[in-house]
């Protein structure tokens, strides 16, 4: 494979990932909108997009592994291919979280409406922004933007903890609202996981751009 042809293949690999990313980002946006607006049609659109996301993940995997096997890239090119392999897995899991959210939205639609004082809209806004910024960082190779995504994860974790605490109180004091509280808790947890996947993507962007492995640096065992 000539150098020019190899660079074209790398560009195609990146383009395939961005197409998948667009579908995933749309899915998580629609799932949060479905929760906020109680729009069941949006739920169906999210569910219908899942097979395409799964197919894209498999296609990107095969394309990337073929590049590694035939070209044996080095340095930045190798890091790009490895980053794509990891990022597409996180994207697929974000798609799974979107499906989890709309499943709970559909379940909530069958229950009596309840006003539960949790800030899911803020949690959704920050989580979706993290995914969007992580993907933008990958698109332009911006490690500083990727670093800002890592910092935003603390707010998502705090909001999720606050939601859990509030819902635990609701279940204790108003047990008849347990089904509503439980479904809301799963949605909160799904959004927190979206933030975790955005963090993973941001770490992969930093690895690609600078060659620095920043995973688990906040872990006590790192």
TrEMBL record:
It comes from Terriglobus aquaticus. Keywords: Cytoplasm, Phosphate transport, Transport. It is found in: Cytoplasm. NCBIfam families: phoU_full. Its main location: cytoplasm. It comes from the Bacteria. It holds the Pfam family PhoU. This is Phosphate-specific transport system accessory protein PhoU. Plays a role in the regulation of phosphate uptake. The lineage of its organism: Bacteria, Pseudomonadati, Acidobacteriota, Terriglobia, Terriglobales. Residues 19-105, 120-205 form the PhoU domain.
